[in-house]
UniProtKB/TrEMBL annotation:
It comes from Oreochromis niloticus. The lineage of its organism: Eukaryota, Metazoa, Chordata, Craniata, Vertebrata. Inhibited by L-aspartic acid. This is Beta-glucuronidase. The keyword Lipid biosynthesis does not apply. It catalyses: a beta-D-glucuronoside + H2O = D-glucuronate + an alcohol. PROSITE patterns: GLYCOSYL_HYDROL_F2_1, GLYCOSYL_HYDROL_F2_2. Residues 1-23 form the signal peptide. Homotetramer. GO terms for biological process: carbohydrate metabolic process; glucuronoside catabolic process. PANTHER family: BETA-GLUCURONIDASE. Plays an important role in the degradation of dermatan and keratan sulfates. GO terms for cellular component: extracellular space; lysosome. The keyword Glycoprotein applies. Gene3D superfamilies: Galactose-binding domain-like, Glycosidases, Immunoglobulins.
Length: 647
């Protein structure tokens, strides 16, 4: 029986070695305050200069990191290179009235001074770490003119320990300089190309453009919070948990890594949501047993979704001269994820994804982290009856993942592998960077119960011959990093010769029938969509998610009978897809994610009327007619598929 099958699997799990192996040195725990850790946010206004020099290199030639950007000794004769105030976090593109800055390509420079608490400097037993939540795309960081780190990739955090640097000149304020470059090349993720226009009768000297094969504005700047935090010199560097359960007993397998030398004692205490003691353990690895476990359930699948325990890790380390004490508390949810040929199981119950695709995108701030926007979006999603979303097309802020954990919103966690269309982007340099991005993504997000699947790419040109080796390597690598979650990449309907298909655990397909093809012909959707599903299932024998479908609608535009771009057409198109979903739902079809939650900005082009209008909400988060259609459907689906099924 299925039950016996899972009992055997669980036993094997207990006996197996720890599933998560991480090749990166060092952890990337989300900075949290505790009795032994402090956090100082550096959000607000920073000084900012874009390097508009023809080779975009003046900042390096003149060593802008050696002094304040605001200092008058810096030349001001280049096009964009005047110092202005820039909010952090935010994309810089839409902050000013200057189209040169909106469309800028190259290095921009940020700096600010920070007053560091005296104790952080005087106490040699304290580590001070500078952390950037994310900056797009390539960053170099200096402290008081000295380089402390570099990072490639726009949507993941990076940090540097700066304790000894700030102790050198303790009386001086500490100046942090961050240079950020948004240029995309064939080897970046996402890829892009820089094209010089050499026809001097049509373009001025040195004219170039950034080409990209993806459908969102390449927002840039410091997108997530920048902060300083402290840990003791000997500290909890990383924690990994894997969870399971047997009947009423929850099982948490944990591993803690400590950095800073010395022998140490680790005490692990698990508390429930109300702060009551549940279980404890000692040592750097072990299994915690949770009697009468409260499992982590998705929103609308249980009356008490998103249940989180807290795992407090307490460290005492002794050297000849001093004692160090550290404490880090990790929220965790106990749940399992399994995939069969036809189903996606959370806690052994079939889970049906009814949700959205999102973007980190809004007016003025671009992709910049913004609490009011995040909370509004969660309220809208819960109003809609959304139980899941995909982080299309890049990793989202950790604070968003934490909200998903607490609210029980299930996530498909996608890396920035979008727009891989040029055959040169399947080479070794691209692949090895892609593997590093997966390492960083899994390291950051491995402990989130909301994350149930990794997506390694969106719509790559997977019919190209090198795609097979590329995706086989990438998917096997990701599975080796994390044996507890399925892996997918998102494909397009039309590329039926999908080389990576055999390696994915779940088939995620995007399609735009009656939109990009057979324009205006809603009547073809039932035939094309069901044929398409049948073909994919026959070919791969994996459960299928409709990972994108939709139509642009200009809010307020109406036509009946429906025509493309009206609210009626968007509604009718969704409805025609839904009819097919409902036929396949009890077979192998396991979820539907609308494209898109909200309208979002794109590059300028004849297919986009100030951005992509496939949102069911406007960019300002007001509903189009489709939001009400979807709300009705999602709540009905929640009642039909989301209830707790008896064993
Ligand atoms: C897609 C892409 C998405 C686009 C969408 C569209 O297939 O994955 O990034 O925005 O289609 O609207 O064309």
């Amino acid at each position: 029986s299925l039950r016996g099958h899972f009992a055997v699997l669980r036993l094997l799990w207990l006996l197996s070695v720890f599933g998560t192996v991480l090749p990166l040195d060092g952890g990337m725990l989300f900075p949290r305050e505790s009795s032994f850790r402090e956090v100082k946010e550096l959000n607000g206004l920073w000084d900012f200069r874009a390097d508009g020099s023809p080779n975009r290199n003046e900042g390096f030639e003149k060593a802008w990191h050696k002094r304040q950007l605001a200092e008058p000794t810096v030349d001001r004769d280049t096009t964009v290179a005047y110092m202005i105030e820039m909010p952090v976090p935010a994309s810089y593109n839409d902050i000013t009235q200057d189209p040169t800055l909106r469309d800028f390509i190259g290095w921009v420079w940020y700096d600010r001074e920070v007053a560091v608490p005296a104790r952080w400097i005087s106490d040699q037993g304290t580590r001070v770490v500078l952390r950037v939540g994310s900056a797009h795309y390539y960053s170099i960081v200096w402290v008081n003119g000295e380089k402390v780190t570099e990072h490639e990739g726009g949507h993941l955090p990076f940090e540097a320990e700066i304790s000894s640097l700030i102790r050198r000149e303790p009386m001086k304020p500490c100046r942090i300089t961050i240079a950020v470059n948004n240029t995309l090349t064939l080897e970046t993720l996402p890829p892009g190309t820089i094209q010089y226009m050499n026809d001097s009768s049509r373009y001025p000297d040195g004219f170039f453009v950034q080409n990209m094969d993806f459908d969102f504005f390449n927002y840039a700047g410091i997108h997530r919070p920048v902060l300083l935090y402290t840990t003791p010199k000997v500290y909890v560097d990383d924690i990994t948990v894997e969870t399971n359960f047997m009947d009423n007993t929850g099982l948490i397998r944990y591993k803690v890594s400590v950095q800073g030398g010395f022998s140490n004692t680790l005490n692990i205490t698990l508390m429930d949501k109300d702060g009551h003691f549940v279980a404890s353990s000692n040592g750097s690895s072990g299994v915690l047993r949770v009697v009468d476990v409260k499992l982590w359930w998705p929103y609308l699948m249980h009356e008490n979704p998103g249940y989180l325990y807290s795992m407090k890790v307490h460290l005492i380390a002794v050297s000849e001269t001093s004692t160090y004490e550290d404490e880090y508390t990790l929220p965790l949810g106990i749940r399992t994820v399994n995939v069969t040929n036809t189903q996606f199981l959370i806690n052994n119950k079939p889970f049906y994804f009814h949700g959205v695709n999102k973007h980190e995108d809004a007016d003025i701030r671009g992709r910049g982290f913004d609490w009011p926007l995040i909370v509004k979006d969660f309220n809208l999603m819960k109003w809609l009856g959304v139980n899941s979303f995909r982080t299309s097309h890049y990793p989202y802020a950790e604070e968003i993942l934490q909200m998903c954990d607490r609210h029980g919103i299930v996530l498909i966690d996608e890396c920035p592998g979008v727009g891989i269309k040029d055959i040169r982007s399947f080479g070794n340099a691209s692949l090895s960077h892609h593997l590093v991005v997966m390492d960083e993504l899994v390291r950051r997000d491995k402990n989130h119960p909301s994350v149930v699947m990794w997506s390694v790419a969106n719509e790559p040109a997977s019919e190209m011959p090198p795609a097979e080796f590329y995706f086989k390597t990438l998917i096997e690598h990701t599975k080796a990093l994390d044996q507890t979650r399925p892996v997918t990449y998102v494909t397009i309907a039309e590329a039926d010769m999908d080389k990576g298909g055999p390696y994915v655990d779940v088939v995620c397909v995007n399609s735009y029938f009656a939109w990009y093809f057979d324009q205006g012909r809603l009547d073809i959707v039932p035939l094309q969509l069901s044929t398409h599903f049948e073909n994919w299932y026959r070919k791969y024998q994996r459960p299928i998610i409709q990972s994108e479908y939709g139509a642009d609608a200009v809010p307020g535009l109406h036509m009946d009978p429906p025509m493309m771009f009206t609210e009626e057409y968007q509604n009718a198109l969704l409805q025609s897809y839904h009819d097919v979903f409902d036929q396949k739902r009890n077979q192998y079809f396991i979820g539907e994610l609308i494209w898109n939650f909200a309208d979002f900005m794109t590059a300028q082009g004849i297919y986009r009327v100030v951005g992509n209008k496939k949102g069911i909400f406007t960019r300002q988060r007001q509903p189009k007619a489709a939001a009400f259609l979807l709300r009705k459907r999602y709540w009905r689906l929640a009642n039909e598929t989301g209830r707790l099924l008896p064993d």
